[in-house]
Write a structure and sequence with these properties.
There is one protein chain. The chain is α+β, with helices and mostly antiparallel strands. Helices cover about 20% and strands about 25% of the residues. A hairpin with a 2-residue loop joins strand 4 and strand 5. It is built from 3 helices and 5 strands; from the N terminus they run αααβββββ. It has a 5-stranded antiparallel beta sheet with strand order 1-2-5-4-3, covered by helices on one side. The protein has one domain.
C-alpha cells in the first residue's frame, strides 16, 4: 500500500498560514480553505537557488494544464507566490525569490 504524500501544512506550516491569509485578502475564500489540505507531491526540481516551488498534484512535466486552468498570483511581503489552479484544485505552488522555507521538525 502506497503512503500518501505529507500535507504541505505538516512540512511548511508557516507557508500554508501565509497562503491562506493572502488568498483571503484576494477574495479567494475557497482556495484559502483548500490550501490547508494540499499534499506535497514533490519539489520543483529545476535546481535554481531562487526556486522552492512545490508540486501538489501529479502532472506531466512540460505539459499545459489545459481547460479550467488559471494562475492566482499573490502579493507576499517577500518574493513571489503564484498558484496554478485547475477546476478549483491547487496543482502547483510557485515559490520564487524568497528566504529559505523552514521545514517543521518531525518528532
Amino acid at each position: 500500500m502506497d503512503q500518501e504524500p505529507p500535507l504541505v501544512r505538516e512540512v511548511f506550516p508557516e507557508l500554508v498560514d501565509e497562503l491562506a491569509q493572502l488568498l483571503e485578502e484576494e477574495g479567494e475564500r475557497e482556495l484559502a480553505i483548500c490550501v490547508r489540505d494540499v499534499r506535497m507531491v514533490g519539489e520543483c526540481g529545476c535546481g535554481g537557488d531562487f526556486c522552492q516551488s512545490i508540486r501538489t498534484a501529479d502532472h506531466p512535466d512540460g505539459q499545459p494544464y489545459g481547460p479550467g486552468h488559471r494562475c492566482v498570483p499573490l502579493v507576499p511581503a517577500d518574493g513571489m507566490l503564484i498558484l496554478d489552479v485547475v477546476d478549483g484544485r491547487i496543482m502547483y505552488i510557485e515559490i520564487l525569490e524568497r528566504p529559505p522555507l523552514r521545514r517543521r521538525v518531525q518528532p
